[in-house]
Amino acid sequence: MTVTAATTRNDYVATSGQTVFPYTFTALADGDIKVLKNGTALTLGGSNDYTLSGVGSYGGNVTLNSGAATGDKIAIYLDMDLARTTNYQNSGDFLALDVNGDFDALWLALQQSETTLDGAVRRPQADSGTINMVLPVAATRANKLLAFDSTGAVTAQAYAVTAYDVDTFTGNGVLTQFTLTSQAVTNNTIVHINGVYQYKSTYSVSGTTLTFTTAPPASSAIEVVNSSAAVF
To answer: Does 162 have pLDDT greater than 90?
Structure first.
């Protein structure tokens, strides 16, 4: 059997009640084909989830035992074991059937690997071959984000998480200072009095102390949002 160039995966979005889904690649055994429904592996067999046709030739059908629902995502892909089971004996028979089977398996394994690579993040051929696309070592990339430097090379980037503390107070018309639950700086705060935004020229923050230039009115509702960034 010759092996025709093919992508060893087919993806479908099902219509209501659809049961038949073609696959357009070669598989040598039933167990070489895997089927996913909405990301969950299905089980081969007439009393299970699906049956197969066309195994051992170019393409065939996956037939679900129960019809799919509208919008179900069906993925069919080659997942053969990468193992060599034929061992040629010295001065033994050198049969075309055995040799062709061995070579067919090799080419199908290459196609399977190529389909896997097609789904990976890769440097395009248009880029320079000198750009380093190897991940930094684990100790360098731990707790970091995957990023790319100015040359397009892979790097690990520290990231920041912004946390917000919200304090509420009630003005009494006299008090100008209020104590926050965490340290802050003026530019990282947002202050409202009775729902009205307060310009930063009307107050200042030092440590955990918020000081207004003019005391907020009696019974006024004061809300202070304090943002802080932690770098990882």
So the answer is: no
| Residue 84 half-sphere exposure toward CB, CA atoms < 13 A | 8
Write the pLDDT tens digit of every residue in 43-72: 999 899 999 999 988 899 999 999 999 999
Count how many domains the chain has.
2
Strand partners, 210: 178, 205
**Conformation bin of residue 28: beta by default, left when phi > 0, alpha when psi is -120 to 50:** alpha
Domain match, 41 and 102 both: yes
Query: Could you list the residue range(s) of the whole structural domain that residue 194 is in?
Result: 160-231
For residue 113, being part of any structural domain is answered with yes
Is 148 contained in some domain?
no
Residue 99 located in a structural domain: yes
Of 52, 46, 45, 111, residue with least CA distance to 76: 52
Which segments within 171-220 are labelled E, that is strand? Answer: 177-185, 189-193, 196-197, 203-212
pTM of the shown model: 0.60
Burial per residue of 173-201, b for 16 or more beta-carbon CB atoms within 10 angstroms, e otherwise = eeeeebebeeebeeeebebebeeeebeee
